[in-house]
Specification:
It is a multi-pass membrane protein. By secondary structure, the chain is an alpha/beta fold. Helices cover 56% and strands 6% of the residues.
């Protein structure tokens, strides 16, 4: 059954039957190679955007493999589902087998996330191909090189992973529809919902667009979605949870009880302000490109605006939350900027017309390079490097048998080596009710349980005298210089300390 097209005014350009695969997709293959070259090396760069990519996804997957790990309040309260950790368990196991000690377990799933991000390049190409080959090239190149998309690609977060499946769904649910496209589009939107349900309002734009002119399209769309949701429910049951109980609990905690606000709030216009700061002068080019892009793909811009508006109503804000909007806007701007190629070809002398496409593509590359090198972005590129270096050094220390985190701005420490420390971790945190302002005395009393401490250099005088500093690093997330303090000797692993990290997190409700 073929149904009416969704409301997306994109002109389809027929392709000659004699056109070979190499001619038609040669540029796309080249751009995929470029995207791979830009993204895969970043999987090895120990940059951590947020604690969540370790403690909400990689640590739970590590625990699924039978290892000990940190359990945060989200998992204790049951507001997370096991779909992504289950998917990551295989790459983590393979990575740890190939490169033990935490390095492989960290890199394995990041490589998978990097490859998943290539779906955005392919989708941008196909959106553009509906108009012309130039539109396909410019849109795909924009997604390939745009600095924010490259930056987020390797990170094991739900936002870029959900975006990687929403984009193909958006393509399938626009243009000429069929039953198979509707089923597949519904399945992908449901998958994105399970991974990042906060993207549901933006996803609904594409679902409504597909059903706007023909309500019969809703049935295959729903059928595809139900198939994915059935698999998700099965994963919940496999892990001993009630299907989708996590969704209800998450809405209760974060949307109704506003639990996330405990981790910071921002005004409603914060996302717009941050986008303008990151895009800087490039905004002057992006806005007219988006204006022209509206003619080709209005639903992309509508979905982007809906997503930003929805997240702007939530008090707790992080830039990664609107990643989907950034990708949609870049594709729409890429389609709009490709119109300038046609304009230049029409107005330029015949001998110079071939420069039109390189000029527009080169502008995208230069804009991305310049914006990625700003001081503002520099702080993002180095997030978590200090923590990762300290954790990786510990995992390679043959004498290390127990770790204490002392007086740090947060009671846990993300890092590349965190996954496979394999030793007990203790946390002495000022807000711990059991500490009661007696951190120096407590760490001295329990020092036989660990022989390494990570703490701020400024608190070195509070540590037992037999601990001496070794390596130090700037913890970029908190702008605190922390050091590894070491003592000789073994650890009393039989001790039952109340300061093991998971016990501390329970008391702090972290």
């Amino acid at each position: 059954m073929t149904s009416n097209a969704a409301i997306l005014p994109i002109v389809t350009v027929p392709t000659a039957k004699s056109e070979t695969f190499a001619v038609r997709y040669g540029s796309l293959c080249g751009l995929l190679l470029l995207a791979t070259a830009l993204r895969l090396p970043l999987a090895f760069w120990p940059n951590v955007i947020h604690n969540d990519e370790i403690y909400q996804y990689l640590e739970p997957a590590w625990r699924l493999l039978g290892h000990q790990g940190v359990v945060t309040w989200e998992w204790r309260d049951g507001i997370r589902n096991w779909f992504l950790p289950t998917l990551f368990a295989g790459p983590i196991a393979l990575g740890d087998w190939l490169a033990p000690g935490g390095w492989g377990a960290f890199v394995g799933p990041r490589l998978i996330a990097s490859f998943a991000s290539l779906s955005m390049v392919v989708t941008a190409w196909h959106f553009g191909e509906r108009i012309s080959r130039a539109h396909a090239t410019v849109a795909a190149l924009a997604v390939t090189v745009w600095f924010e998309l490259v930056y987020f690609a390797p990170h094991t977060l739900s936002e870029p992973l959900a975006t990687a499946v929403i984009l193909p769904a958006a393509y399938l649910l626009t243009g000429q529809l069929s039953r198979s496209r509707l089923v597949m589009g519904g399945a992908l939107l449901a998958l994105a919902f399970v991974w990042r349900f906060q993207y549901a309002p933006a996803s609904a734009v594409f679902a409504l667009g597909a059903c706007w002119r023909d309500r019969r399209n809703a049935l295959p769309l729903i059928a595809g979605g139900l198939a994915t949701l059935t698999i998700a429910a099965g994963i919940d049951v496999l892990h001993g949870s009630t299907p989708f109980a996590w969704l209800i609990l998450n809405i209760q905690q974060n949307l109704l009880h506003d639990r996330a606000s405990e981790f910071g709030v921002a005004p409603a216009f914060a996302y717009v302000t941050l986008m303008l700061s990151l895009w800087s002068g490039a905004t002057l080019l992006m806005l007219p490109a988006l204006w022209r892009g509206w003619r080709h793909a209005p639903l992309l811009i509508v979905a982007a605006v809906v997503n930003i508006a929805f997240h702007s109503m939530i008090a707790h804000k992080e830039y990664r939350f609107i990643f989907l909007s950034i990708v949609l806007l870049v594709i729409a701007a890429g389609l709009g900027s490709a119109d300038w190629v046609q304009l230049m070809r029409q107005r330029a002398p015949r001998a110079r017309r071939y420069w039109a496409l390189p000029i527009v593509c080169g502008t995208w590359v230069l804009l991305s390079l310049s914006l990625s090198a700003t001081r503002f972005m520099h702080d993002y590129w180095v997030l978590g490097l200090g923590e990762a270096n300290l954790a990786a050094d510990l995992s390679a220390d043959p004498e290390f048998c127990g770790l204490a985190l002392y007086g740090l701005p947060a009671p846990f420490l993300p890092g590349r080596g965190q996954l496979a420390l394999g030793r007990p971790v203790y946390s002495f945190y000022p807000s711990d009710p059991l500490a009661k302002g007696q951190l120096p005395a407590l760490v001295k009393r329990h020092q036989q349980e660990f022989n390494r401490i990570i703490g701020p250099m400024t608190l070195a005088s509070e540590l037992p005298s037999d601990f001496s500093p070794r390596g130090c690093a700037l913890m970029s997330s908190d702008h605190v210089t922390a050091c590894v303090f070491a003592r000789r000797g073994t650890c009393d692993l039989a001790a039952t300390s109340p300061f093991k990290i998971n016990d501390v997190l329970v008391r702090l409700n972290y």
